[in-house]
Amino acid sequence: MGRQGYSAAERLERLPISGYHRIIFIIIALAFFFDSMDLAMMTFLLGSIKTEFGLSTAQAGLLASSSFFGMVVGASLSGMLADRFGRKPVFQWSIVLWGLASYLCSTAQTVDTLTLFRILLGIGMGMEFPIAQSMLSELIPAKRRGRYIALMDGFWPLGFVAAGVLSYFLLPVIGWRDIFLVLAIPAVFVLAIRFFIPESPRWLEQAGRHEAADKVLLGIEQKVRDSLGRADLPEPIALPRIESAPGTFFSAFQQLWSAQYRQRTMMIWSVWFFALLGFYGLTSWLSALLQQSGFAVTQSVYYTVIISLGGIPGFLMAAWLVERWGRKPVCVVTLLGGGVMAFLYGQSAVFGGNVGLLITSGLLMQFFLFGMWAVLYTYTPELYPTSARATGSGFASAIGRVGSLLGPLVTGLVFPITGQGGVFALGALCFAVAALVVWLFGMETKGKTLEELTQA
């Protein structure tokens, strides 16, 4: 317990949103952006890699899935590590790992070594995603938490679009290996994180490190005062007190399956699995499917980038609606909307026909699906207590990555049998199942502090 007996949550929740909060947000969001670029780049490079190595569609699907295999491992481990040893060190090392792995991808001379390096890249990215959402959810007050986490996720489609733009201009000039080399450069970003991102005071407090928590909180409070240009801060308001103590490495995982959190865990795992199975089964193949239909490499990349632009207004709309409608209804609407548009995209995917219909349905599909991402990243960490938040987020992400792993592989197997219409119909069905799960079993978390949700 800190100054005058106030908890970390009570001191954090009373803080007005300031420039300091925005700096933390930008640093975490930029790390998210660079990770997104690395992961999305396979969407734009897969066709060229497939051609160079003479891969079948099934082999290309396996390569596209390799990063997701690594993400399953990374997300599973990082949550437990962060709940046991802290958010900040795990966040830092995840960025170093994906930067190194991206460099190694640029050196790959065979598809086997490239697959191995993409697995390592996936481990680093899988570690970073759940830690980023946990850190931000614990540092931003409840009244703005949903909006900021949803906006953080918005850097995902921005990274996707940036990857497309980068590949569009550079792929014809330097080839896919040098593009991976370029993507390794942002790993130096970890130096900024070391100086500007604090450890979560909520985590320090529940770990029993009260003096360290108080020191971090004093620093945060002073930076908020400096940012606002005033000496006084609002008085803390009493919140539910959550008694906890440092646990073992596996105690956080056990907590996910306690009577209080079991239904939440089963619900969110199901949603992540089906949503990501559908999403990556479609988006990992957007560019390659266009090439399969007769478009040139640069033309297919161009259309994929145009379609991805729909994700930008999608996440902005979701960031606004999660604080107006709530997490649950926005999640259902974005999943159903994405499913309907994915189905229509598949039916319009006789690409030599109506390109206008293809682009329109594709834009709307990405509008809803990137809105879905924004809600998922907002919703998931709110379902768990500080002692298990990163583990809960990490394992939900890991289960989702199993869906991500299967998605491109299933697409590579199904496409020769059903064609593009069947692939996108399957994706639409996955989104419908995820929406039904949220509707039946999800809880609303809008406007509540993390401590209030812990006792819900």
UniProtKB/TrEMBL annotation:
Q: What is its main location?
A: membrane
Its cellular-component GO annotations read: membrane
Q: Do the record's keywords include Flavoprotein?
A: no
Location in the cell reads: Membrane
Domain spans labelled Major facilitator superfamily (MFS) profile:
24-446
Name this protein carries in UniProt: MFS transporter
Q: Which Pfam families match?
A: Sugar_tr
Q: Would you identify the family this protein belongs to, as annotated?
A: Belongs to the major facilitator superfamily. Sugar transporter (TC 2.A.1.1) family.
Residue ranges of the TM segments:
20-46, 58-78, 148-173, 179-197, 266-288, 300-322, 329-349, 355-377, 398-417, 423-442
- Output the InterPro entries linked to this UniProt entry: MFS_dom (IPR020846), MFS_sugar_transport-like (IPR005828), MFS_trans_sf (IPR036259), Sugar_transporter_CS (IPR005829)
Asked if the keyword Cell wall biogenesis/degradation belongs to this entry, the reply reads no
What keywords are annotated for this sequence in UniProt? Membrane, Transmembrane, Transmembrane helix, Transport
Q: Which GO terms describe its molecular function?
A: transmembrane transporter activity
Coiled-coil segments on the chain, per record: none
